[in-house]
Amino acid sequence: MSSKEDILKKYRANVREQFDMPDLSDIRAITYPDPLLQFMNMVKSVGGNAIEVDKGADINQLIKELYPDAKEIASNLPEITIATRNPDDVGRARDLNGTDVGIIRGMFGVAENGCVWIPQQMKEKAVCFISENLIILLDKSQIVNNMHEAYHRLSTRDPKSGLDLFDEYGYGTFISGPSKTADIAQVLVMGAQAARSATILLLPE
Amino acid sequence: MSTQHSKAAKQFLKNQQYAHWHDATFWAVRSKRDKMAYGLDEWEQLREKASAIKRHTITHLDEYLDQFATNAEKNGVEVHWAKDAKEFNEIVYGILKNHNVKKMVKSKSMLTEECEMNPYLESKGIEVVETDLGERIIQLKGQKPSHIVMPAIHLNHDDVGELFEEKGISNEKGNHDPTYLTYRARLSLRNEFLTADAGMTGGNFGIAETGDIVVCTNEGNADMSTSCPKLHIAAIGLEKIIPNYECLAVFQRMLCRAGTGQPTTTYTSHFRKARPTAHHMHIILVDNGRSEWIGDPEHWESLKCIRCGSCMNTCPVYRRSGGYSYSYFIPGPIGINLGMLRNPQAHSGNVSACTLCNSCQTVCPAKVNLGDQIYLWRQQLDSLGTANPEKKMMCKGMGMLYGSPGLYNFATGMAHFANLVPSPLLNCGLNPWAESHDMFKFPKKPFHEMIKEIEK
Predict the structure, then answer these.
(1) Whole-prediction pTM
(2) Phi, then psi, of A146 in degrees rounded to 5
(3) In this complex, do B223 and A128 lie within 8 Å of one another by their Cβ atoms?
(4) Which DSSP category does A70 fall into?
(5) For tag attachment on chain B, is the N or C end more exposed, with fewer CB atoms within 10 Å?
(6) Per-residue pLDDT tens for B39-59?
(7) pLDDT in tens, B342-391
(8) Closest alpha carbon within chain A to B224
(9) B224 with A171: Cβ contact below 8 A
(10) Pick from A131, A125, A144: which is nearest to B271 by CA?
(11) Are the CB atoms for A201 and A138 separated by under 8 Å?
(12) Structural domains in chain B plus CATH codes
């Protein structure tokens, strides 16, 4: 008998009383009068930056102003013209090491905790973590209140693109602020193993 | 009369300054948790739902495990089943050997601690590098975690600074600033990520409906561990499977708020398929006792635990005795219970590490009845053969005393004569009631007499 059958057989023999699934539709989850404002405040409180981009502003120019010393910029987004590397073209994921600024696109933000949903939309997801500084482009109209709404959205196809974004690469992550740790004497330090800073550029309609 | 735990706690308390810091640090984490909990009107409702989802899921695990495995396989993932630690370790080694792996980076996983995977793989010549900063520190130090979320909490910044100097990770001698040390560790670990042949993660949740492994970290080390190496192995205990995203939302909202008092971890990552440039992804589902524990009528609910660590943060005994005072590798209230399920003979000493204040089960996001279970374990010590003989005798004596009103009234009436015993005899170290303070004085009149006089 395989281990799978062994385990399931043993489990079935031992399990006693069985319980029903609770109704989750009555959860009175928090909502906000101004989800965008709440989102921006949360991003700040988790150590990130959130910047509202004016209509017609030049994103490439703005990024250059934010990181004037950046030499290696990685992105596969067509609107980013200042990129020096492309996560779709690198030979190996590790070739993205040494990226000063990585620029990626988020699908929606979550007001309650500053998370942004990042489906993998590039060949090497390393760009999301290996870059010293991370910039996430996000349409400012795409903010949900809480994680219930967020996961509801992920359970269905994306209303904007009609895609289930797991179809292509099979990976996605919620990112809230920069990488951090308090493992040495409980002192909070930004920039543990992944991006040392995280900036959300909130794009107009 | 001291248990293994209280003897070990005595060692911990020798350094009073550190003991005080430990206590205050965890109380601060508990306070942060409270702030988060009180910030959501629905917090208690979420706890109810979390408990009910877990009760349902862990009593229907065969269905959900099957669904999970089927969906993961549809995603091109290879799913393995391990009955016990030995089989788990062998499966991991088999996969690594097939891919000729020399070095593996890994993110934090209490399951691999449980199975003692690292020493096994090292004995086979594979280098394993922990990448959670706290885990890396204790790995370099040759120690075990003293807390499930903050594994290096027993070390201060000077300890870490000296360790990093010794291991050549930091090069500025005497610079023990946590920011500097974290930066040096970042550089060192970055090199490990880039040169490893495989990456291993644990899993906070497995989603039956989609086959996702969900991993929550603040450092991004699970994502770094799986972004460069060509092979990803995820290890997950059976009880971590939940039905779907609707359920995940409940747990994602609670895990970090309860554990560290943050609104979320920095990264909540969903691994569904291997990277396009990598080999197959492997998921190992590990039983190692769980399919038996589900049948324990008094203790099966320990399987609801989501490993947030909030029960140890709030526990007055954990805060004042530290993780190393417990004999099981998971300390605190949940560790006491899991240790007893694992091996009651070996871990009975831990059940005394509880004041039955029930703070643990008041904060537990999955409403595991931790304190109640510890109380129940204590009732079983005699039948397990691990009851303390002196305490047993005392209990017999108390049974006699409280069972006979005449004897009881006589004894309490006479008790004040014990005050006449010279202090050096009472406070000599043999009397357990006079530890860390002098023996108390018996009142001249027992309570029953006093109350009668008042009522006159």
Answers:
(1) 0.94
(2) -150, 180
(3) yes
(4) -
(5) C
(6) 999 999 999 999 999 999 999
(7) 999 999 999 999 999 999 999 999 999 999 999 999 999 988 888 888 88
(8) A129
(9) no
(10) A125
(11) yes
(12) 4-30+294-384 (1.10.1060), 60-291 (3.40.50.10420), 402-455 (no CATH)
